Amino acid sequence: MKAKSISRKYSELQRQDWDTVRYSIMRWSLMVKLIQDWEEFAPLLLKTRGYQIVEYSVKDDDWGAIPYGTSNLKGKNVLGRLLTDIRDKFVIPANKPQFIPPLQISSFQLYGTNIGRVYPSEYYDDFLMD
After folding, report:
1. N or C: which end of the chain has fewer CB within 10 A?
2. What is the spatial distance between Cα 20 and Cα 54, in angstroms, rounded to a whole number?
3. CB-CB contact of 21 with 29 (8 Å)
4. CB-CB contact of 7 with 63 (8 Å)
C-alpha cells in the first residue's frame, strides 16, 4: 500500500497501456520472485496445496476479493489466481525455471534499459565470483 501511495505522485509517467499489460507484468514479477527466492517462496506456496489462494482485501476487488455479506468474498482475485497458477505449474511439480524471459510488450524497460532474461540468484552469485 505504501508503494502504491508513493506511485500516485508519478501517475503521469504511467504506461498508457497499463490496464492492458498489468496482469502480464504482475505474473512476470511473481515468476521473477519465485526463481530469485525459490528456497523461501516455493515452500510458502506449497503449503497452500489443494486450496485456491485468495488475496483478501477490504478495497480492491480486482487484485483481490473483498468481504460480501457476513461470510463471503467477491472479486476477480487476480493476484490469488496468479499465485495459484504459478504454484500448480511450477512449485508442485518442482519445475524451477532456468530463467524468466522478458515480456514481449513494447517498452518493457527498467530505468530506460530493456529488460532481458532474469536468472535465479545463484546464477548471479556464480557470475560475480568469476
Report:
1. C
2. 22
3. no
4. no
The residue count for the chain = 130
74-107 per-position pLDDT tens digit: 999 999 999 999 999 999 999 999 999 999 999 9
112: which residues sit within 8 A by CB, 6+ positions away?
none
Q: Which residue has the cell 496482469?
A: 23
Query: Does 126 score more than 70 pLDDT?
Result: no
Give 74's contacts (C-beta < 8 A, 6+ positions apart). 61, 65, 66, 68
Q: How far is CA 31 from CA 8, 36, 39, 119, 128, in A?
A: 25, 8, 14, 11, 23
Amino acid letter, 112: G
Distance CA 89, CA 64 (A): 21
Q: Give the amino acid at 18.
A: W
Q: Where are the domains of the chain?
A: 17-51+86-129
